[in-house]
């Protein structure tokens, strides 16, 4: 099996290199003419209508207006980073790509500076939210155009909460734990991912750490700051929260597990994107009716935080006609086009442009409003330090997630913090 | 024959003698063997040697994804040795490989011995036995994900139904059980390979040897111990070597079931290297983790080769 896969990728490599030389020749021949087609790479959206809208409406409209065909290439969920890596390393493939998380930083050198068009797009649509810059600005340059934030918030069963006397979603982590204790006793435990998924683990654990005052690293991006009384309090809280409101399985969960558990009525509260409510309304209407969504609770610092989860679009520097790609990006982000695209996905992709702050799609489902409001308190992992390679390594090694997970599995607070601190010192000690 | 026909008219034209000489030269065993060997060697150098060499080069570089790297010598390996997770991954990989291989060896041998008997529907059952090996791993692993899911697990449902445990163990959430579960799934997937290969080995053993042993008064156990096992040894060696290599470098099971959780309890070399190289964009460090597999794997293979060498006498 492994050999078949390897053989296939080898063939691909050969094909890519053969095509690249042909492509190179063609590229040289038509350097001045407008391209006949450009390719935009995207991860398959879990909302099929979103992909379909690009393919069936946006792309044909652009072709009609300019004669340039836009090919929308979808990649299966979870494999986009591998694909972007291959494209960036070989300087071949699609012209534009969807990016998430800190990829604008990771692939910085292979992405076109789009500061100019970001300003144009911002001006047309009421300006950018501050968090847009946090997501894509690398060394003062915009390396991507933010499209939407896929917020990670609280999803809960309003009916079960009401049964134990909790009418509104608790405002603090302590109050949430109190509710959770009652709900677990009533047979409705909580289920927050503490395993090695892509997002639902970081989505609540970084905000938890921040709201207790803990920081992974100081604003300078070099001094490891995890070993603090605040972190210790967050870890102690997490352990108790896990023991009193959840069950062991969450330690091995991946990103699909909490959706599955929630939609099969195994859990009463989790931290996730809007997808749970979306699927519930579509496939399990009874659950959909009683599902509420809320911002993350406040910690002892009185502050609440969220994970910044940006979906952005970047232009690869190998693109034969950078201006053509920029023109398309400006066109697609024009409120007329972008607004319709946001509409199809209801509010799953929360815009970074102020013009859409009060757009009708937010009011189509008012339960999604907390996702809009969370943007001002959302940050990338590693905040308040700027995005960096070290940060990326820390996330890939699950340092913060595993610090909490190990404490939940029974290790002492001191031990897990000192493990995390040692790992982070090694990671952040390297030259940036 | 065809050579003589071609060589015959060659004598009439001036250019032909050199051609004939060339042909004679290529037909020399020393030359011909090289000519035959060169294409596959080139193939291997290009498709195996080059990636390996590139991997070694990467591991010696500080090489972020999509950026130029610079040579750092053994710095990546030194960083690995100071990384507590790296050592946890090393222990995990050894436990996983050892437990899964031993279980597959014992189970596979047992299965092969049973399949070597005569019974009805023998061929159908032999074919069915191969199913776990034929089904694409990712698909069968997703099925296992459901089997091991606490809410939907058929195992936990049975435990609850018979009042043995409620809600039943957390197969993937408990660090020890998660490793146990992964080993079981690996054994399930790898057993048919062992069984079929060993069955092929068993069928090459002449029945006369068993008859002779029986006449000499050997019990069933003695026949197994002194006839079957020694003659099967070369096959056991080959199949174990393959199994060790594949199990040591396993990726798919872990990636689908746990992605290394809980807290790296099931993280293996291949998955850790992937996380660091792809997720973290640290190609050099990822390569160094992947390459760290090589020396222990080579040592295991060499040790096995010495220990299990077929007795030539």
Structure, briefly:
With 432 residues, chain A is of the alpha/beta class.
Features:
heterodimer; A: 432 residues; alpha/beta; D-Maltodextrin-Binding Protein, domain 2; 2 domains; six-stranded mixed β-sheet; three-stranded antiparallel β-sheet; 20 helices; 13 strands; disordered N terminus; B: 313 residues; mainly alpha; MetI-like fold; two-stranded antiparallel sheet; 16 helices; flat
Task: Describe the structure in your own words.
The complex is a heterodimer of chains A (432) and B (313). Chain A is of the alpha/beta class and 432 residues long. Chain A has 2 domains: 37-150 and 309-371, 3-Layer(aba) Sandwich (D-Maltodextrin-Binding Protein, domain 2), CATH 3.40.190.10; 153-307 and 388-428, D-Maltodextrin-Binding Protein, domain 2. Chain A has helices at residues 2-29, 48-66, 80-90, 103-106, 115-124, 130-136, 158-163, 173-185, 202-211, 229-245, 255-263, 275-283, 285-289, 322-332, 335-344, 360-364, 369-373, 389-396, 399-408, 413-428; strands spanning 37-43, 69-75, 96-100, 137-138, 141-142, 145-149, 153-157, 269-272, 291-294, 306-307, 310-315, 350-351, 378-379. Chain A has a 6-stranded mixed β-sheet with strand order 2-1-3-11-6-12. In chain A, β1 (37-43), α2 (48-66) and β2 (69-75) form a beta-alpha-beta unit. In chain A, α2 packs antiparallel against α15 (335-344), α5 (115-124) packs parallel to α14 (322-332) and α19 packs antiparallel against α20 (413-428). Mean pLDDT of chain A is 91; it is low at 1-31. Chain B has helices at 2-10, 16-27, 29-59, 75-81, 84-115, 122-129, 131-134, 137-148, 154-161, 175-203, 207-215, 220-248, 252-257, 269-279, 283-291, 294-307; strands at residues 61-62, 70-71. Chain B contains 16 helices and 2 strands. Chain B has 2 domains: 2-59, no CATH class; 76-307, MetI-like fold. The longest helix of chain B is centred in the first third of the chain and has 32 residues, at 84-115. Chain B has a two-stranded antiparallel sheet. Chain B is mainly α and 313 residues long. At the A-B interface, α3, α11, α18, α19 and α20 of A face α14 of B.
């Amino acid at each position: 099996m492994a050999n078949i896969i390897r053989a296939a990728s080898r063939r691909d490599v050969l094909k890519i290199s053969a095509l690249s030389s042909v492509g190179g020749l063609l590229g040289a021949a038509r350097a001045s003419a407008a391209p006949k087609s450009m390719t935009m790479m995207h991860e398959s959206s879990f909302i099929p209508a979103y992909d379909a809208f690009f393919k069936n409406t946006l792309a044909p409209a652009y072709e009609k207006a300019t004669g340039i065909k836009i090919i929308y290439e979808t990649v299966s969920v979870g494999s986009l980073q591998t694909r972007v890596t291959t494209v960036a390393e070989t300087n071949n493939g699609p012209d534009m790509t969807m990016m998430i998380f800190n990829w604008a930083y990771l692939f910085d050198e292979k992405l076109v500076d789009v500061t100019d068009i970001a300003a144009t797009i911002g001006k047309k649509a009421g300006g950018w939210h501050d968090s847009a810059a946090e997501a894509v600005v690398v060394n003062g340059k915009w390396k991507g155009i933010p499209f939407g934030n896929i917020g990670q918030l609280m999803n809960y069963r309003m009916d079960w909460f009401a049964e134990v006397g909790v009418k509104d979603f608790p405002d603090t982590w302590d109050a949430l734990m109190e509710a959770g204790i009652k709900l677990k006793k009533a047979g409705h435990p909580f289920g927050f991912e503490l395993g090695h998924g892509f997002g639902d683990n970081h989505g609540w654990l970084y905000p938890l750490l921040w709201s207790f005052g803990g920081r992974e690293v100081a604003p300078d991006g070099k001094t490891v700051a995890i070993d603090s009384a605040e972190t210790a309090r967050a870890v102690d809280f997490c352990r108790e929260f896990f023991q009193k409101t959840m069950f062991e399985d969450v330690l091995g969960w991946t990103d699909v597990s909490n959706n599955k558990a929630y939609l099969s009525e195994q859990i009463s509260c989790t931290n996730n994107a809007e997808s749970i409510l979306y699927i519930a309304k579509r496939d399990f209407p009874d659950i959909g009716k009683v599902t509420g969504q809320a911002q993350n609770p406040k910690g002892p610092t009185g502050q609440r935080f969220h994970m910044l989860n940006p979906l952005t679009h970047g232009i690869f520097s190998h693109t034969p006609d950078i201006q053509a790609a920029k023109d398309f990006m400006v066109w697609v982000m024009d409120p007329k086009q972008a607004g319709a695209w946001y509409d199809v996905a209801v509010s799953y992709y929360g815009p970074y442009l102020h013009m859409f702050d009060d757009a009708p799609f937010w009011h189509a489902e008012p339960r999604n409003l907390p996702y809009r409001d969370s943007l001002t308190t959302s940050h990338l992992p590693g905040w308040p330090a700027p995005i960096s390679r070290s940060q990326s390594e820390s996330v890939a090694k699950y340092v913060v997630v595993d610090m909490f997970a190990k404490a939940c599995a029974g290790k002492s607070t001191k031990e897990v913090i000192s493990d995390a601190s040692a790992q982070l010192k090694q990671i952040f000690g390297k030259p940036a | 024959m065809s050579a003589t026909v071609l060589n015959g008219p060659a004598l009439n034209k001036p250019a032909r003698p050199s051609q004939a000489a060339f042909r004679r030269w290529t037909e020399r065993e020393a030359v011909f063997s090289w000519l035959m060997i060169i294409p596959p060697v080139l193939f291997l150098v290009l498709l195996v040697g080059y990636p390996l060499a590139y991997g070694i080069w990467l591991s010696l570089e500080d090489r972020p994804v999509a950026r130029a790297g610079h040579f750092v010598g053994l710095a990546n390996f030194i960083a690995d040795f100071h990384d507590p997770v790296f050592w946890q991954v090393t222990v995990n990989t050894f436990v996983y490989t050892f437990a899964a291989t031993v279980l597959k060896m014992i189970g596979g041998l047992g299965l092969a011995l049973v399949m070597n008997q005569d019974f009805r529907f023998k061929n159908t059952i032999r074919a069915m036995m191969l199913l776990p090996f034929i089904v694409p791993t990712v698909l069968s692993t997703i099925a296992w994900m459901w089997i091991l899911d606490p809410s939907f697990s058929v195992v936990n449902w049975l435990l609850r139904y018979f009042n043995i445990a409620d809600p039943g163990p957390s197969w993937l959430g408990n660090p020890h059980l998660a490793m146990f579960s992964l080993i079981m799934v690996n054994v399930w997937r790898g057993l048919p390979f062992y069984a079929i290969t060993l069955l092929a080995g068993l069928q090459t053993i002449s029945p006369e040897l068993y008859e002779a042993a029986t006449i000499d008064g050997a019990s069933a156990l003695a026949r197994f111990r002194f006839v079957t096992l020694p003659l099967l040894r070369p096959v056991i060696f080959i199949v174990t070597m393959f199994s060790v290599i594949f199990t040591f470098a396993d990726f798919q099971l872990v990636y689908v079931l746990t992605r290394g959780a809980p807290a790296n309890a099931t993280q293996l070399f291949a998955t850790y290297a992937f996380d660091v190289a792809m997720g973290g964009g640290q190609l050099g460090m990822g390569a160094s983790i992947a390459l760290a597999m090589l020396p222990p794997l080579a040592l295991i293979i060499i040790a096995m080769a010495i220990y299990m060498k077929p007795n030539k006498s």
